[in-house]
Amino acid sequence: MLLYFGSESVWALSLLGLILVLAAIIAIQAHRGRVRGGNEELPGMTGEVTQASDARGRARALVRGEIWQVYADTPLKLGQSVRVRAEHGLMLKVEPVPERDVSLGEPS
Q1: Residue 49: in which H helix or E strand, if any?
Q2: Are 67 and 61 a contacting pair, CB within 8 Å?
Q3: Do 43 and 91 touch, CB atoms closer than 8 A?
Q4: What residues have CB less than 8 Å from 65, skipping those under 6 apart?
Q5: Closest-CA residue to 49 (of 35, 59, 39)
Q6: Environment class of residue 30 by beta-carbon count within 10 Å: exposed (0-12), middle (13-18) or buried (19+)?
Q7: Burial of 48 (0-12, 13-18, 19+ CB in 10 A)
Q8: What is the pLDDT of residues 18-69, one digit of tens each?
């Protein structure tokens, strides 16, 4: 093979083969990793209540720039900071955040 292609071609083909093997390894690792995006990243984020709790204990809150229907174990007040604990379809379970612990919508 060395006589037919020359030494430069062998090095080029070897380098191309190495690049393809590394690309395949990276692609396999990326495919195995768990996708984390969309609503899956909501738990841990903080938001602000835009509508106080009603008689059923539901309220609305601004989380990640979107208005969500939320519920909590305690009544929520307008302007109160909340942290998302879980996501159930289009509703979020939240808990009040102490005023000193607000982190601008980022997960804690």
Answers
A1: strand 46-51
A2: yes
A3: no
A4: 105
A5: 59
A6: exposed
A7: middle
A8: 999 999 999 998 888 766 666 778 888 999 999 998 888 899 999 989 999 9
Q: How far is CA 22 from CA 14, 40, 100, in A?
A: 12, 30, 47
Calculate the CA dihedral of residues 91, 92, 93, 97 and round it to 10 degrees. -150
The alpha carbon of 16 is separated from its chain's Cα centroid by a whole number of angstroms, namely 35
3-state secondary structure of 102: coil
Distance CA 83, CA 107 (A): 9
Of 35, 106, 100, 94, nearest to 65 by C-alpha is: 106
Number of CB atoms found within 10 A of residue 35's CB: 7
pTM above 0.70, yes or no: no
β-bridge pairing 81-88 and 66-71: unpaired
